[in-house]
Design brief:
The chain has about 240 residues and is an alpha/beta fold. The protein contains ten helices and ten strands. Magnesium ion (MG) binds near residues 43 and 85.
Length: about 240
């Protein structure tokens, strides 16, 4: 089922509270998009979820199982993959090493066949990675690195995939390809996806629900079909 529930109280950095309160849930096969202008608190929300920003309280559950006290690494072992902003991968390692490393970090004695199956899965979503297997990640284009960063997250076969602005810096064609791939992941893997985005128009094509942040406060939340026509959302937050 992969139902992911999160509740964050007073998240921020040291004494600075960025988000007083945030609460949401996403089911497997659904995508929640976190929208909002620069500085609204999208990244902070995601960091608070995985424990890399401070929070007075963090309650996260996956299928009712309490994961609140777990470290980022333990969360990954429990099926939560976090793909931070900035297309982060190991620049001095090849595409293959980046993918293999993501798999082996959690399954050091993972079966070869299992690894191969996941390789095929990510190559199917991002064919460029198969073509560039031996290339150093640092010499890939920003868009290709973004695909690699998402693929690394998929190598753990996540139950929950958390992505921070995966379309940042990508050309429209690549945004389309990436979102098409995310749509397929959502439909076929049963994974619950939480994604921070500024590209509302593109996100709308695959998101099921949306949560709009404004200066750390939830300005609007609900199913995409409902908020899509919200005048306040379009004018005030998205400039559309
Ligand atoms: N490490 C940090 N230390 C202190 N304050 C921070 C830190 N990171 C972010 N902030 C502040 O927290 C607020 C929210 O920032 P955040 O990065 O969460 O916004 P965002 O919605 O992700 O913006 P963007 O769209 O630019 O990525 C901002 O006012 C920012 O200056
Ligand atoms: Mg951000």
């Amino acid at each position: 089922m992969n139902k992911f529930q999160a509740r964050i109280e007073m998240a921020g950095y040291g004494d600075l509270v960025v988000l007083p309160h945030l609460e949401f849930e996403v089911s497997g096969g659904e995508l929640l998009v976190l929208l909002g202008p620069n500085g609204a608190g999208k990244t902070t929300s995601l960091r608070a979820l995985v424990g890399s920003a401070d929070a007075v309280q963090r309650t996260i559950r996956l299928d009712g199982r309490d994961l609140s006290g777990l470290s980022a690494w333990e969360l990954a072992r429990s099926g939560l993959a976090f793909v931070p902003d900035g297309a982060r991968c190991f620049s001095n390692a090849t595409v293959e090493e980046n993918l293999r490393g993501a798999f082996e970090a959690l399954r050091p004695r993972g079966a070869h066949a299992e690894r191969q199956r996941l390789f095929e899965l990510v190559f199917d979503l991002f064919p460029i990675l198969r073509e560039r297997l031996g290339q150093l990640a640092g010499s890939m284009s920003g868009g290709q690195r973004q695909m690699l960063a998402v693929a690394r997250g998929l190598m753990i076969e996540p139950k929950v995939l958390v992505l921070d602005e995966p379309s940042a810096g990508l050309a429209p064609k690549l945004v389309e390809e990436l979102f098409e791939a995310l749509g397929r992941i959502k439909a076929t893997s049963g994974c619950a996806i939480v994604m921070a985005e500024q590209n509302f128009a593109a996100a709308m094509s695959i998101a099921d629900t949306c949560l709009v942040l404004d200066e750390g406060h939830v300005a609007l939340a609900g199913p995409i079909a409902e908020v899509r026509h919200n005048e306040r959302l379009r004018v005030a937050y998205l400039g559309m």
